[in-house]
Amino acid sequence: MAAYYITRSHDGLQTFAGRIGTVLANVYTSVVDWNDARVTRNALSALTDRELEDIGLVRGDIDQVAQSHRLF
């Protein structure tokens, strides 16, 4: 005698809601990352060339640092 069981971990509505939640979480994360980069860029841009040199940067490094800050 063979037994055949079908289990469903999610129905269609839960899967759809989960996908919407994932999309919203990704959008939120993107906005937070963009804002962090903007704040970092503005803070570094407000420093003088001497202050930037003290921390080992030049003005041309600001965009790269602002975009890669989340890697640290």
List the helices and strands and how they pair.
Elements: H1 12-45, H2 49-54, H3 62-68
Helix pairs in contact: 1-3
What this model shows, in words?
The structure is a single chain. This protein has 72 residues and is mainly alpha-helical. The protein has a domain at 26-71. Helices cover 65% and strands 0% of the residues. The protein has helices at residues 12-45, 49-54, 62-68. The longest helix has 34 residues, at 12-45. The termini are far apart. The model has no long low-confidence stretch (mean pLDDT 85).
Structure summarized in a few sentences:
The chain has about 70 residues and is mainly alpha-helical.
Structural class: mainly alpha
Gap from first CA to last CA: 59 Å
Beta-strand content: under 5%
Low-confidence stretches: none
**How would you sum up the global shape?**
rod-shaped
Oligomeric state of the chains present here: single chain
Order of SSEs = HHH
Overall pLDDT score? 85
| Percent helix range | 55-70%
List key phrases describing it:
single chain, 72 residues, mainly alpha, 3 helices, 65% helix
